[in-house]
Specification:
The complex is a heterodimer of chains A (106) and B (194). Chain A has 106 residues and is an alpha+beta fold. Chain A contains five helices and three strands; from the N terminus they run ααβααββα. The two termini of chain A are 23 Å apart. The chains are: A alpha+beta (106), B mainly alpha (194).
């Protein structure tokens, strides 16, 4: 999609990987901690386990998250943490949305 | 919501299950019983043992329901400082109680001090609770601080043995923790993981 109107050209810069609400929530949760496991992210985001798993995989595939699988007390544990690229992408998304919404002031 | 607010909210949620109240309440019950029975030095080991058990119980019982999170270094540093402050307060409490006890048995304690000394444990617990409330950012702990202070006042006013104040406040905390834990377990079932 291309925005013909110059003031709204920033729409083209929206990172659609992060823009999806569920993924934005997950990135926001991970941006304020060093790392968190799958259960924590499901709990804090309010997403279903399946939905959270799908979105976390999408973020990991985009290089925004690291995934570490271990066992704790014989239970599988998957830890997630943002990568440098993920933090930069989130900051860039914040800047894009701030500029875009600023130009849309009604 | 700023990142700071989000992090603060996440940190507070870590201690919202009621397990903290339950542990502290059981510790106070142990101390109270020890005080009343004259076995306080032995009973003092109870809270230390509970503190050692906390990580294992938290991970085994709360982990599958709440998950695990590693907060940023700044938060971990503040938490460590807070715990050190609470431990130091404990040592100060012990030192003060010992000093006053020695003064009393020597007959050197000022009369006014003797009137209010029974309220010292509850007052120091109240101070510790205020510190904990500031550290954890949990407003309800201020309520517990008020409860501890109320216990101290009742001890002085009704000339009670301080052990009863410890047992009373401990019982209230265990009850509060039990209610919070029941709500927590009902609202946060174990999350299935692959």
């Amino acid at each position: 999609m291309g925005a013909k109107n110059a003031p709204l050209a920033a729409i083209d810069d929206i990172d659609r990987t992060i823009h999806e609400p569920a993924r934005l929530i997950l990135m926001a949760l991970l941006s304020v901690v060093d790392e968190a496991d799958f259960v924590y992210l499901v709990r804090r985001s309010g997403l279903s386990a399946g939905n959270a798993g799908t979105h976390l995989k999408r973020l990991a595939d985009a290089g925004y998250l690291t995934v570490t699988k271990t066992f704790v007390d014989n239970r599988p544990q998957t830890m997630y943490a943002t990568t440098e690229a993920g933090r930069e992408a989130l900051n860039a998304y914040h800047g894009t949305m701030t500029a875009l919404l600023g130009s849309l002031k009604l | 919501m700023s990142p700071r607010d989000l992090e603060q909210h996440a940190y507070r949620s870590e201690y919202a299950s009621g397990l903290l109240e339950t542990f502290v309440g059981v510790g106070l019950l142990i101390l109270g019983v020890g005080w009343l029975t004259g076995y306080l030095p032995i009973a003092s080991v109870g809270p230390a043992l509970l503190a050692m058990l906390w990580p294992a119980v938290r991970n085994r019982f709360l982990g599958p329901r709440m998950g695990r999170v590693k907060f940023r270094a700044e938060r971990r540093r503040r938490e460590r400082t807070g715990f050190i402050a609470l431990v130091l307060l404990g040592f100060v409490t012990f030192g003060l109680a010992t000093a006053v006890f020695l003064l009393q048995i020597r007959g050197s304690a000022p009369l006014q001090l003797g009137d209010v000394i029974g309220g010292l444990p509850g007052t120091l617990l109240a101070i510790g609770a205020v510190l904990a409330a500031l550290m954890f950012g949990l407003p309800r702990i201020f309520g517990y601080a008020a409860l501890f202070f109320l216990g101290a006042v009742c001890t002085v006013v009704f000339d009670l043995d301080p052990g009863w104040s410890l047992i009373g406040t401990g019982a209230v905390l265990v009850a509060a923790g039990g209610v919070l834990l029941a709500v927590f377990v009902r609202n946060q079932p174990v999350v299935p993981v692959d």
